[in-house]
Amino acid sequence: MSERTETTLYDAIGGMDTLRRLSDTFYEAVLEDALLAPVFANFSRTHIEHVAVWLAEIFSGPARFTEELGGHQALLRSHLGLAITEEQRTRWMELMTAAVEKELPDDELLRRRVVEYFDWGTKIARGVSAEPVGQNLGEPGPTPRWGWNGLQ
User: Which residues form a coiled coil (predicted)?
Assistant: First the structure.
């Protein structure tokens, strides 16, 4: 097994400090973007921390999102009723990719794996967003984990 696969994405990224910077850089751009700002009309600064905590768990860091913020179900439910379009999803990806390039270590494979997670996750978020607020999503299972080979 290579050293790279023995290290989690969370550790390779640089942990919570890097994820907070990533989230902050990304949402700064989102809130200034005419296409995406309306999706985040109810945005609060705590959202930045919640996203960093979610990403930490996804990338095999601390499981605080599950323990403190409602886990996978809560994340999915937060997208209900947003009616995200493919154009918005694509723009979201553009802004997040730019934030990844700015904030993550200069490691092509690391950045590619992180962006692949966002592409996968935004497709799920877009699908869930078409459902009305209050929709029963069933049990989505535990918070997914994403590693050097994608979904684990």
Answer: none
Tell me the whole-structure pTM to 2 decimals.
0.94
Give pLDDT tens digits for 72-96. Answer: 999 999 999 999 999 999 999 999 9
Q: How far apart are CA 147 and CA 9, in angstroms?
A: 6
CA pair distance 115, 110, nearest whole angstrom = 9
